[in-house]
């Protein structure tokens, strides 16, 4: 049976699927089809699809109906997926246990279900977890319940949530930034984690330095660089970027500062790293009444002391962080 489909090049498939999913337009009852390098993504309402996409009608097979956690429970639970791990943020232990068992009883390819047991804490940015349920029959290749391999925009990241910080919610934002990188750039990810900014930048032809205080994150960054075939382009450094900056003074064409609660404390290091012309991606969390002002003022002050002009390229809201608080990004050009 012919269905309306968005037709895109295969390499743009995941980005397009996420955009359609955000608009609640993905037809979950029919399969995505690949044909001669093109991807056909079935949609529920062709008239609601953005004009930038090419909508055509073609035959696509119907999905075999899979059992979801909602089918098991009778309601749709809230959870995130990270590789073969499902993540809950539940206060009620009894409800959390029911949801965890329903996830494992469903057809989702999930090996373990975790519940957040603390906020992100300390300089190493880790949190505590409660393991709610595990599938003993799943092939975890000897990994612990908190360890997984996450796939994002064609890249793979091996990580252990018990020892590193990682948020799958920021996938679209990471892609927005890394898609701007051009071959030949020098880029520094000042708080690199396991590499979700550094590795895509290297894959686009940049030479990348990734710095992190967390020794586990740095080891995963090195492993993930090898896993994604960019090890020769990525230098992973364990330490405080303020101590590293002098070794790369004036080197960077692009800087990523994804430490939104305290990035302002590292702006002196950023302007030390910046070259004659450098794009800075500065992340912040501020009240919705003035989400960009504090960060912009801090950047201008640091840049002025170092002799840079500041041109704000983009003021971008990443997501809502808490009631009346926004996680934002300032894309800024620093020029001598």
Automatic annotation (TrEMBL):
PANTHER family in UniProt: TRNA (GUANINE(37)-N1)-METHYLTRANSFERASE, TRNA METHYLTRANSFERASE
UniProt source species: Haloplanus litoreus
Cross-referenced PROSITE patterns: SAM_MT_TRM5_TYW2 (PS51684)
Keyword terms, alphabetized: Cytoplasm, Methyltransferase, S-adenosyl-L-methionine, Transferase, tRNA processing
Gene3D superfamilies reported for this sequence: 3.30.70.2580, Met-10+ protein-like domains, Vaccinia Virus protein VP39
Highest rank taxon of the organism: Archaea
Domain SAM-dependent methyltransferase TRM5/TYW2-type: 79-336
Record GO biological process: tRNA methylation
Membrane-traversing stretches: none
UniProt-recorded name of the protein: Class I SAM-dependent methyltransferase
Pfam families linked to this entry: TRM5-TYW2_MTfase, Trm5_N, TYW2_N_2
């Amino acid at each position: 049976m012919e269905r309306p489909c968005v037709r895109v090049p295969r390499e743009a498939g995941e980005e397009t699927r996420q955009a359609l999913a955000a608009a609640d337009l993905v037809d979950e009852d029919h399969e995505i089809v690949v044909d001669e390098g093109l991807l056909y993504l079935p949609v529920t309402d062709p008239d609601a699809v953005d004009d930038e996409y090419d909508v055509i009608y073609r035959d696509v097979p119907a999905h075999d109906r899979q059992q979801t956690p909602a089918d098991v429970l009778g309601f749709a639970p809230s959870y995130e997926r990270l590789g073969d791990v499902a993540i809950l943020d539940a206060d009620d232990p009894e409800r959390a246990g029911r949801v965890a068992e329903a996830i494992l009883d469903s057809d989702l390819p999930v090996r373990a279900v975790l519940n957040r047991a603390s906020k992100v804490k300390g300089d190493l940015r880790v949190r505590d977890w409660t393991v709610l349920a595990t599938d003993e029959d799943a092939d975890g290749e000897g990994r612990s319940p908190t360890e997984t391999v996450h796939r994002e925009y064609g890249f793979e990241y091996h990580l252990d949530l018990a020892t590193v910080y990682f948020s799958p919610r920021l996938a679209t934002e990471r892609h927005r930034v890394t898609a701007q990188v051009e071959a030949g750039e020098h880029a520094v990810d000042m708080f690199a984690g396991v590499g979700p900014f550094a590795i895509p930048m290297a894959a686009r032809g940049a030479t990348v330095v990734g710095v992190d205080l967390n020794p586990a994150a740095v080891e995963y960054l090195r492993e993930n660089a090898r896993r994604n075939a960019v090890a020769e382009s990525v230098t992973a450094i364990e330490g405080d970027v303020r101590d590293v900056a002098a070794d790369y003074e004036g080197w960077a064409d692009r800087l990523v500062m994804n430490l939104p609660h305290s990035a302002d404390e590292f702006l002196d290091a950023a302007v030390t790293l910046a070259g004659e012309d450098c794009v800075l991606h500065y992340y912040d969390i501020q009240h919705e009444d003035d989400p960009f002002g504090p960060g912009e003022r801090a950047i201008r002050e640091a840049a002025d002391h170092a002799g840079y002009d500041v041109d704000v390229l983009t003021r971008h809201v990443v997501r809502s962080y808490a009631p009346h608080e926004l996680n934002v990004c300032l894309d800024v050009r620093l020029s001598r």
